[in-house]
User: Which sequence fits this backbone?
């Protein structure tokens, strides 16, 4: 048996489930026949043996033929390329497997009935066994072949349709997974490019700050270089991930602000109003750092006053709200884009990660600016 099946196309579902399904259908058909018979004929006269044989041989023969039927089914793509050839070959397969099913099931069904004396053949007492059996088969086919053929055509069509549908669905699933994988790989490539762009941008700004301090305060510049080295070590020696916990992101920000405090001294004040529960949620890496960097840059722009930076996190029903607020000059001039490379980069990353579910806004206040980000929370 294995030799017959080994060169066939593997079924889209396990063969044992095919047999289990056919057994269930056989039992359902037998039950339907039994209850119908009970309503019409006396209860004790139900022909159990013949009915069980009819159901088991009918469905069992299909079970034997199903691997061959599936192997002969065309690919979905073939219908578009050569429809006439496909329909012709499928019609021939229909005739072949229907004839095989009728012949095999008839032999398996009526041979045991003959030995039990339950054969429906009219000449059972007038001819020797084999001629009588052959004549009986011929009589049965002549009498019942038209209706049996129609029933088998329908059964073949159902079997072929189910397996083609399953095959098509699995191919659709595989294609969907491949497309999703390609989109994910493309998204990851874009995120890596954006993060690679963000790191040098931050380093460039930090080095500019150090350069400005060298002539003014050499000791402060040395301290700033030391802290910058610690921050870069913290970022670069970790695994290159796009998402980190808000707690870890806050550690990056504090390391960055340690550097800026050397530069600005007492002129910079930082306030943290972070919801403790929000610290465990994942956020894009270096996101807060970009917001804080932008707040310091524009907060200290064209002013000699002290600058206050306030970081806030808040859990809403289905979102994580993050704000970075400064009390600087704000967005005063027209036709000036307050979003530098860092914020434009951040907006692209948010779009890649969350599509249209995340929001980023710069809100101008009477004194200062609020950078606000809303990130969807993962569903439980």
Assistant:
């Amino acid at each position: 048996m294995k030799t017959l099946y080994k060169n066939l196309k593997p079924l889209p579902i396990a063969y044992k489930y095919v047999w289990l399904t056919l057994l269930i259908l056989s039992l359902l058909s037998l039950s339907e026949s039994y209850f119908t018979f009970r309503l019409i004929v006396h209860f004790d006269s139900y022909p159990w043996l013949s009915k069980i044989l009819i159901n088991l041989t009918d469905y069992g023969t299909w079970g034997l033929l199903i691997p061959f039927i599936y192997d002969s089914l065309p690919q979905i793509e073939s219908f578009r390329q050569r429809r006439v050839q496909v329909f012709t070959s499928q019609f021939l397969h229909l005739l072949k497997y229907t004839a095989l099913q009728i012949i095999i099931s008839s032999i398996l069904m009526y041979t045991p009935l003959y030995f039990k004396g339950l054969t429906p053949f009219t000449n059972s007492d007038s001819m020797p066994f084999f001629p009588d059996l052959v004549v009986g088969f011929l009589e049965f086919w002549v009498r019942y072949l038209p209706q049996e053929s129609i029933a088998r055509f329908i059964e073949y069509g159902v079997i072929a349709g189910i397996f083609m549908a399953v095959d098509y669905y699995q191919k659709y699933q595989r294609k969907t997974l491949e497309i999703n994988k390609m989109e994910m790989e493309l998204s990851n490539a874009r995120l890596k490019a954006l993060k690679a762009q963000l790191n040098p941008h931050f380093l460039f700004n930090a080095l500019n700050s150090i350069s400005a301090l060298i002539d003014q305060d050499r000791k402060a510049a040395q301290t700033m270089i030391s802290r910058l080295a610690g921050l870069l070590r913290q970022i670069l020696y970790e695994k290159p991930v796009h998402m980190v916990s808000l707690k870890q992101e806050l550690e990056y920000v504090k390391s960055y602000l340690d550097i800026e405090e050397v530069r600005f001294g007492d002129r910079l004040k930082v306030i943290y109003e972070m919801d403790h529960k929000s610290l465990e949620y994942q956020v894009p890496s270096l996101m807060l750092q970009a917001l804080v960097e932008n707040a310091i840059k524009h907060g200290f722009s064209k002013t000699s006053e002290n600058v206050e930076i306030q970081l806030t996190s808040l859990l809403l029903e289905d979102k994580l709200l993050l704000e970075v607020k400064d009390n600087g000059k704000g967005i005063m001039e027209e036709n000036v884009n307050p979003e530098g490379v860092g914020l434009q980069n951040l907006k692209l990353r948010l779009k890649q990660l969350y599509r249209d579910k995340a929001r980023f806004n710069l809100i101008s206040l009477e004194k200062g600016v609020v950078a606000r980000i809303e990130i969807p929370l993962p569903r439980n």
